[in-house]
Design goal:
Layout lengths: L1 H16 L1 H4 L37 H37 L1 H16 L2 H12 L3 H9 L3 H15 L3 H8 L4 H37 L11 H8 L8 H28 L5
Helix pairs in contact: 1-3, 1-11, 3-4, 3-6, 3-7, 3-9, 3-10, 5-6, 7-9, 8-9, 9-10, 9-11, 10-11
Length: 269
């Protein structure tokens, strides 16, 4: 089964990378005479539009492939930034403790106390809603979860006998951290990453809903769901198609993360 999950995710990555090249139509091309056509199998469907069309007659298959590329870029880049920042904060706060650790914990508490939507609004209003700014905003949305988890794990592991033995043998702080501490917290980090990956996709959807995400006519899966909310009663496929893609990617990442947790957990070995 893990091979099937990995193969399916690899297929999604290939589709995301090659999306614009394999799309049957220009994702932004409008054909008003073909607007709100349902997917193949329903009345009024058109064979050249297998997933149907949206309110402007744009091919949903082409827009889904194009949106998949941008959504995966935003989610992967954002989750990587969040992971690196959170692990760095949590490791330093848990290992060195003292005033530095207390200060970092206070920063984490402030991040968790302030509604992130307000932070996103402030940053985007100040710096604009370009793609690098959007990735950075999404990247700082969940790092505090990593930080608190890693800090708790490091506090526990740093008092284990094998860490004390390495410290007594004269091992440097960097060797202790990268050789003994971080490998033992890698498994929960993978689990948190798989849980937050889909949340970042939904965050992009929320920002697009508020008009703060990627601006039209550029498509992301989140913006497609947002634009299709007004047609749920008359043309539900406009929102359902990208929603199903988001659900499939999220489920697949969770399954891969569950497998990696067991495969990489040094305690099980």
């Amino acid at each position: 089964m893990p091979r099937i999950y990995i193969a399916a995710f690899a297929l999604i990555l290939v589709a995301a990378i090659a999306g614009p090249a394999i799309a049957p139509f220009d994702p932004n091309a409008q054909t008003l005479l073909a607007r709100l056509r349902p997917p193949v199998g329903f009345d009024r469907a058109m064979a050249i539009h297998p997933l149907g069309t949206d309110e402007l007659g744009r091919d949903l298959l082409s827009r889904t492939l194009s949106g998949l590329q941008l959504t995966m870029l935003i989610a992967l880049a954002g989750s990587f930034i969040s992971l690196v920042v959170g692990v760095a904060f949590g490791t330093v706060a848990g290992y060195f403790r003292g005033r530095l650790g207390m200060f970092l914990v206070a920063v984490v508490d402030v991040q968790m106390a302030v509604p992130f939507t307000l932070i996103a609004l402030l940053v985007i209003a100040t710096l604009g809603n370009s793609l690098p700014v959007l990735i950075s905003v999404i990247g700082i949305s969940g790092w505090e979860v990593y930080a608190r988890l890693v800090r708790a794990q490091v506090l526990s592991i740093s008092h284990q006998p094998f860490v004390e033995a390495a410290r007594a043998a004269g091992a440097s702080h960097s060797r202790i951290l990268f050789r003994h501490v971080i490998p033992n917290v890698f498994s929960p980090i993978i689990v948190i990453w798989t849980m937050t990956f889909s949340a970042l996709i939904l965050l992009e959807s929320s920002l697009s809903f508020l008009g703060l995400g990627v601006q039209p006519p550029t498509a992301t899966l989140g913006s497609m769901v947002g634009s299709g909310r007004d047609y749920l009663a008359t043309a539900p496929w406009v929102a359902v198609v990208p929603s199903l893609v988001i659900m499939f990617i999220s489920l697949l990442v969770l399954l891969i993360g569950d497998w990696l947790r067991d495969a990489l957990d040094v305690k099980l070995k």
